[in-house]
Amino acid sequence: MRILITNDDGINAPGLLTMMAIASEIAGPDGEVWTVAPAFEQSGVSHCISYTRPMMIAQLAERRFAAEGSPADCILAGLHDVMKDNPPDLVLSGVNRGNNAAENTLYSGTIGGALEAALQGLPAIALSQYLGPQTAELDDPFNAAAVHGTATVRAILDNTPPQNGDYRLFHSVNFPPVAAADVKGMKATVQGYRRDVNFSVEPHFAPSGRKFLWVRGGSQHTPTEPGSDVAACLDGYISITPMRADLTAHDDVQALQGALPK
């Protein structure tokens, strides 16, 4: 198997080493793992692409490239430049430092990389490591992802039907904020919603007197509804959320059509 990996934490992020180990096991001894990751951290860029400017790409080692762009840019670079003659069979994005559950999903560059791969017709999985007090005490905060990542990816690949639709299925995986030994199992989940938690800005003034705004988030351990990604992770389970790029509110289309002027 040929696997392309990317992330949004950057080419030198420790989570990318964890992903490389997972991908190498999945690819097998006769497979290949290619890396095209952002040259600098791209957290929070979602699915943006560098549509109005070119990006520089540099080869750092065999099958290892850094691109001055977003994770979605890296997927485009990997598919249409680096691996254009022999495209990958699978795209893995992450392992992200921090969760990409609930509303974080909408901001995540890790998710954006997987989403772009799905739009390009490839199976794709985004992997993220939830952090918390228990992971802060570990020598490796990615311990749960490192130990359970391969089995999780294999479980998804073994249980995903062939995709023929316009908007292909992809998956978001969040490993719980516990040590690997304390992981209880895997759960299929929906995207949660942390009520009363959102991003905001905090003003600061430089010594020159200029005003700067820092974006800040809310509590990542606010409970969500049972069956959701956050709820599963806070209960010690690996959450696996199937996703599509189709943003249509299908439940409202018929009602809207009935209310429109004839």
UniProtKB/TrEMBL annotation:
A divalent metal cation binds at residues 8-9, 43, 96. InterPro entries: SurE, SurE-like_Pase/nucleotidase, SurE-like_sf. The keyword Cytoplasm applies. Keywords: Cytoplasm, Hydrolase, Metal-binding, Nucleotide-binding. It comes from the Bacteria. The keyword Cytoplasm applies. Its cofactor is a divalent metal cation. One of its GO terms (molecular function) is 3'-nucleotidase activity. Residues 3-195 form the Survival protein SurE-like phosphatase/nucleotidase domain. It is found in: Cytoplasm. Its main location: cytoplasm. It catalyses: a ribonucleoside 5'-phosphate + H2O = a ribonucleoside + phosphate. Binds 1 divalent metal cation per subunit. Belongs to the SurE nucleotidase family. Nucleotidase that shows phosphatase activity on nucleoside 5'-monophosphates. PANTHER family: 5'-NUCLEOTIDASE SURE, 5'_3'-NUCLEOTIDASE SURE. This is 5'-nucleotidase SurE.
